[in-house]
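Our collaborator T.R. sent over the components below with a one-line note: 'Predict the complex.' Nothing else. No constraints on interfaces, no templates requested, no preferences about which chain binds where. So this is a plain run: every listed entity goes in together, and whatever single assembly comes back becomes the starting point for the next discussion.
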Amino acid sequence: MKHLLILSGKGGTGKTTISSAFIKLSNAMAFADCDVEAPNLHLIMNNMGKEEVSDYYGLPKAEINSDICVSCGKCKDYCKFYAVKTENNRFNIAPFSCEGCGVCEVICPVSAITMKPKVSGELKLYKDSAVFSTATLKMGSGTSGKLVTEVKRQMSENAPKTDLAVIDGSPGIGCPVIASISGVDMVLIVAEPSVSGISDMERIIKTSNQFGVSTAVCINKYDTNLQNTKKIEQFCIDNNIICLGKVPFDKNAGKAINNGLSVVDIECNAGKEIKKLFLKVLAFLYRDNGGLIK
Amino acid sequence: MKIAVLSGKGGTGKTLVSVNLAAAASKSTYVDCDVEEPNGHLFFKPEKLKEKPVKVSIPSLDENLCSGCRKCVDFCKFNALAFINNKPMLFEEVCHSCGGCILFCPQKALSEKSKKVGKVEFGKAKDVNVITGIMNLGEASGIPIISEMFKSLKDKDELIILDCPPGSGCMAMESIKYADYCVLVAEPTLFGTHNLNMVYELVKIFNKPFGVVLNKCVEGENLSEEFCKGHSMPILESIPFDYELGGINSNGRIATFESNKYSVLFSKLLKKILKEVHI
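Returned assembly:
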């Protein structure tokens, strides 16, 4: 199974719009939403029946038993995350700051601190003939990288034997993005012709290259700024990166999504170009096989 | 006073709103907390005044002292240390710099070593102080860079605009921790509304006063507006979907300086926010 990951650096360039169209076009049997901090793919994948929900436990977080605590302050001295707070000489842990390293548990001379398991997200698995894995980070729990890894694991473990998995990624270049890149066969970057979009595209391409994954670019809403679109195409030529297609801005795309549909479910210009783009992505992904699936 | 601008979903217009609020004020400090993909400097094009590297501490091993007891590997909750050839090996990007391995090594074979993870640039554009955090490529966490920026802020800085990263995880949390007020920027789409709901939950958990700016509004259905009304969330402003604004913005120019219409809109928005904060 080949894994195609859609990323963008900048948010709002159209990752989910393009992912959902690719899922429809390929009739994908395995797909996932790795943007656990702002998941949206499930909103337009609504014919999948009832989901299986399971709790995701992140790292256990520290808790101080005030009956045992002698207020020596050692935990506060050693906590690098400023998570130990004092109020009237009583010590407690600020749960949003605690990263679960466990230093305080070991350093406490009277064993007043224990690490308590904490639900930090919700994994969802939709399973009929196809498998769709997604998750939502619990607000206030913080770290999302490990949850991204869980989303991908859940997809792989439940997927039927199939040729293509489509993974919708998250914006940025940090921990959740790095977690989503690991092990994929190709990253498709959805760029946007704005100065911000170009700057962010350059940073995500470099990040993706650092992890040695084949990377290609497409330009969404390309006609909103033709000059900047040219700059992106030139950047791709200068840096030996293939630009696989350009999708026009199309108000119908937004309308389709508001109705819970993907862009290729309706007749529109953006949809037409995404279909062409998809064929080129497949040809790139399966280039070792002459562009043929399998 | 610190005003955080956040959104959950990316690309809703956080930087547009942040940059223009800072520009609309007579004097302000703009802080780009989106250290993974900082963009505010592309608009302000500030004159660079100074630069500060951001470093974290990671463990360094003295192989002669290491007995191979693997206590450090067993302790590390982040799996940043692996036991290879009877010695711990560090995966730097995963290390959270908690210091536990160094602290608990019975042989004192581990010591602190500093590692650069990014930088903070300080600049000025007209009357706006522009502070930009930039994370090094390949790093997992930009939190040390955000903390460094907060350390540099002084109370005398009257109006501070925090341009937050997208999402609702640790990076967004770190950016709003010290905010006095949060501005949630939302798109009127199904996606926009869903993610608005998430950051709404987040600001409630942090107990922050907030208001909503609806961006890219078109005639007809506005799901985010309905959501706000249904939850009695204050709507501060509705910015229309406008090719002129899109053009100014995609070329890295500042609407407040270029268009009278937007100068009025953002000044009005700023006044409204300041009034809300002082209530």
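Summary for T.R.: Residues 269-285 of chain A form the longest helix (17 residues).
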